[in-house]
Inverse folding.
């Protein structure tokens, strides 16, 4: 049809490979996000929306002042879990690009896998995941602190 001049290399071009893998990861995570948001939305009492409508709130204001604060913890926990799943996930990159082209999609878990199992250097392979421990510990600390603060309110 003449829309493009040359074939678009989704996984072979270093500039496009990471974005192509991200599309797959987002596609995989969509049901998780959808189900957790649906559960959070179903936990909001309908009376709050009725009271807001009686008070003259628009749909947008109801969303901003009722829906978002009510599912704030759901959004936070879902984002944290999704971040941990994505950072630790190696299957998409391993299957689609195996870290290539030219190392453009190499992540720490894939590097640990390749150094630990393929190069038989188990010391480096086990050290690389330990670099993430402080990062995850800080995230979990602040998340727990925030969730417990909201529980006490």
């Amino acid at each position: 049809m003449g829309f493009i001049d040359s074939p678009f290399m989704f996984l072979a071009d270093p500039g496009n490979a990471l974005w192509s893998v991200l599309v797959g990861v987002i596609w995989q995570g969509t049901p998780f996000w959808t189900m957790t948001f649906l559960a959070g939305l179903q936990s909001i009492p309908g009376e709050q929306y009725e009271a807001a409508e009686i008070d003259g709130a628009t749909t947008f204001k109801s969303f901003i002042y009722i829906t978002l604060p009510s599912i704030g913890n759901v959004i936070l926990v879902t984002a944290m879990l999704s971040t941990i799943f994505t950072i630790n996930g190696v299957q998409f990159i391993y299957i689609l690009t195996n870290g290539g082209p030219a190392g453009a999609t190499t992540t720490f878990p894939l590097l640990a896998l390749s150094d630990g199992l393929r190069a038989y250097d188990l010391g480096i392979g086990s050290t690389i995941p330990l670099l993430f421990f402080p990062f995850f510990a800080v995230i979990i600390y602040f998340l727990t602190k925030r969730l417990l603060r909201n529980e006490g309110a």
